[in-house]
Amino acid sequence: MAAHLPDLWVAVRSSLRQVLDEVSVQQLLTGSLPAKVRRLNDVEDAWLPR
Question: Which domain of life is it from (predicted)?
Fold first, then answer.
């Protein structure tokens, strides 16, 4: 299990970058997030605690 942990963290970092690279500070301040980012909020369990 631990041997595969670096692969998991690289994938997490990559997905986080995909979102952060799409959003400017101006978009964040105005709430005009790109559609791709807004759609992630619409995933059925996105807001549920784990």
Answer: Bacteria
Take residue 39 and report the two structure tokens written for it: 């759609």
d(C-alpha 20, C-alpha 1), whole Å = 29
For tokens 């963290």, name the residue: 9
Distance CA(42)–CA(32), nearest Å, equals 15
- The letter for the amino acid at 22 is E
pTM of the entire predicted model = 0.69
Query: 45 phi and psi, to 5 degrees?
Result: -105, 20
**Longest CA span, the chain:** 42
What is the structure's pLDDT at 10?
A: 97
The tokens describing 28, both together, are 């964040």
